[in-house]
Design goal:
single chain, 326 residues, alpha+beta, four-stranded mixed sheet, 11 helices, 20% strand, elongated
Length: 326
């Protein structure tokens, strides 16, 4: 939804418009808060309409509503243009163009229509765009022409007004499916749920492995004189490992960690660090188990992460919505 997508496969195509990150994340959070009970109209209070990087205007809401309810619809886009008075004649200033419209093609198209006498009332067209100011195309209107009439003709005859055909087909569990707005949000939240569960399982495994080694090191530091005596009396490292395992009921991994332990870890400060780390790991293990066993907590983790992304990258919408095209 945020990036948009387009693709053609055998017998089917997909065409998704881009959306505003903040709005989509608000919609996802509302879906999580309602435990999936929110309907499409409810989601549309948050995800109002597509939002295109080139700005412009969505002209009329019927196509957006259809796209969100059924997965298919036609969104009409209009470039942003203002009429400026310059002395005793008028200028049309185009500052934003519809998504996927190439500015140079639009200007050429207008010039061709003027040359073919299909579009009258224009005396000159000039591209004053810059990387700092953005798009600025100046259309000079003849003195005897009405700028509003000329602008309406530009909307009618050129790509200054164009449409985006929405076709939300995506692969869901490996099968192509036409998705409405709620289906898209649900699929994403389900995916995040799976990601968080898998990540938590991985982190839990790592934490338990570390806790196991720390238990062995703490046993060694509590019986340090005996441990040193066993290591000194052993023929080789493997012999030391075997004898430590027998004496203190340790696992192979724990005994290896003790044999490979550095002398500096025998100081009082390092021993208290071991205990502090062990306590932290125990708390982490308890939290990770809670996330795996409590679905509400897992959903809260997803929600917190979405909010973090929104606060970091969210921005206001660029595309204006004009609800009634009449």
């Amino acid at each position: 939804l945020v990036n948009g997508a387009s693709g053609i496969a055998v017998g089917m195509a997909t065409n998704m418009p881009t959306h505003n990150l903040s709005e989509v994340l608000d919609g996802c959070i509302a879906y999580i808060d309602s435990k999936g009970e929110i309907d499409i109209d409810g989601l549309m209070e948050f995800i109002k309409a597509p939002d295109f990087p080139t700005g412009a205007m969505i002209y009329g809401y019927a196509g957006v509503k259809s796209a969100y309810e059924t997965g298919r619809g036609r969104v009409v886009l209009r470039g942003k243009a203002e009429i400026e008075q310059d002395g005793n004649h008028e200028k049309i200033i185009i500052t934003e163009i519809p998504y996927q419209v190439i500015k140079s093609d639009l200007i050429k198209n207008i010039a061709d229509l003027v040359n073919e006498k299909r579009l009258d009332g224009i005396s000159n067209i000039n591209d004053e765009s810059s990387s700092r100011e953005g798009v600025r195309v100046v259309v000079d209107v003849k003195r005897d022409a009405n700028a509003n009439v000329v602008l309406n003709k530009l909307y009618k005859m050129t790509a200054l007004q164009s449409s985006f055909s929405v076709n939300n087909i995506a692969l869901v569990n490996g099968r192509p499916k036409l998705l409405n707005l709620k289906d898209l949000v649900k699929s994403f939240v389900d995916h995040r749920h799976e990601v968080v569960i898998r990540r938590t399982r991985y982190e839990l495994k790592k934490a338990e492995e570390r806790a196991h080694i720390l238990e062995g090191l703490i046993i060694a530091s509590d019986n340090i004189d005996e441990v040193i005596a066993i290591i000194k009396a052993s023929k080789n490292p493997q012999d030391a490992i075997t004898r430590l395992m027998e004496r203190f009921s340790l696992s192979d991994i724990q005994a290896r960690a003790i044999v490979e332990m550095r002398l500096r870890q025998l100081t009082g400060l390092e021993q208290s660090k071991l205990r502090a780390e062990y306590e932290e790991i125990e708390k982490l293990i308890a939290r990770l188990n809670d996330i795996l066993n409590n679905d509400d907590l897992c959903m809260q983790v997803i929600k917190d992460e979405l909010l973090e992304i929104k606060n970091k990258y969210g921005d206001p919408r660029k595309t204006e919505i004009i609800y009634a095209s009449e």
